[in-house]
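stage 2 :: seqdesign
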């Protein structure tokens, strides 16, 4: 089941390469997690992939989230929240809960390093 799920997330990540509204790396991270628990072969293939491997390794080793990914994620969350506030008729408590979850997500993303630490810095 995890192998099938992993390949599904790989497919979503590949679609994200050509569609700017769909992020690639988060789907590949989930796929990597699935493969780590189901197939060493597929895990190693994805982890060392020419295109997808470098950001996965940077996250794995240093917890790095590139600035472009941070900007995209925060912009997407803000746009989504604006949409539900202005175009959906949802109860206030649901909008507040959504805003709180998105704020936590933004906090998590923004507190991670944007670059691999240099030799003088700790990882």
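stage 2 :: out
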């Amino acid at each position: 089941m995890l192998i099938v799920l992993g390949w599904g997330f790989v497919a979503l990540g590949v679609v994200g390469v050509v569609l700017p509204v769909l992020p690639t790396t988060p789907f590949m991270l989930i796929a990597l997690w699935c493969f780590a628990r189901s197939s060493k072969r597929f895990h190693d293939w994805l982890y060392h992939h020419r295109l997808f491997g470098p950001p996965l390794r940077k996250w794995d080793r240093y917890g790095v989230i590139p600035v472009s990914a941070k900007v995209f994620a925060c912009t997407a969350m803000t746009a989504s929240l604006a949409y539900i506030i202005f175009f959906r008729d949802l109860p206030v408590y649901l909008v507040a809960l959504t805003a709180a979850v998105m704020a936590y997500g933004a906090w998590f993303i923004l507190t991670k390093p944007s670059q691999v630490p240099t030799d003088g810095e700790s990882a």
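stage 3 :: structure notes
- The chain has six helices and no strands.
- The mean pLDDT is 92.
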